[in-house]
Amino acid sequence: MDQDMFKAVYLAGFILIFAIRLPYWWMARGVPVVTDRKKGSEKVLLATLSVGVGVLPLVYVFAPLLRVADYRLPTWMGWMGAVVFTFGLWILWRAHAGLGRYWSDSLQLREGQQLVTSGIYRRIRHPMYAFGWLLAIAQVLLLWNWIAGWSGVVAFALLYFLRVPREEQMMIDQFGEHYRAY
Q: Which stretches in the chain have pLDDT values below 70?
């Protein structure tokens, strides 16, 4: 019973991610991209992330295909996963509110984009990545399965460690010393 409850919590959080992102995705569509470093490897990383935090968890939630890899955690750890996910969703919401119509899911800068250093960006340099790590941790605690639970950690770690150096360089190229000081 606990497993089904925590699967439902994951599913609800998954839906909330889209509810938070959709308005900002819609706003950003109308702002032209001026810097685009979305190369083939970026597309592969985003696809891997989609499988790790979307496809495999959803297969696990809705079908018995991955049950062979189930494990058991104490119930309190599932509730801890719910708390971590909730905190992560709050960070995601604040990060989107800070970026507004300049948000992008990949390495892009939009026309008129300024360096955001207020709001949550005052305290966390990369709140979207903080959300990603919290989501990965929550996924392990909510989906008690070696494949579906841990696929988010693997996929997000790949994205994080391969993308962040390129993103940092893009920000330095665009905002120079102002970004270095930030």
A: 1
- How far, in Å, are 58, 148, 160, 176 from residue 64 at the CA level? 11, 12, 30, 51
Structure tokens at 94: 């604040």
How does DSSP classify residue 70? B
Q: Which long-range contacts (CB under 8 A, 24 or more apart) does 22-30 make?
A: 24/96, 24/99, 24/100, 24/101, 24/103, 25/103, 25/105, 27/100, 27/101, 27/103, 28/101, 28/102, 28/103, 28/104, 28/110, 30/101
Q: Which residue, among 159, 138, 139, has the nearest Cα to 147 in the 3D structure?
A: 139
d(CA 58, CA 62): 6
Confidence at residue 29, expressed as pLDDT on a 0 to 100 scale? 87
Bridge-based pairing of strands 108-110 and 33-36 is antiparallel
pTM exceeds 0.85:
yes
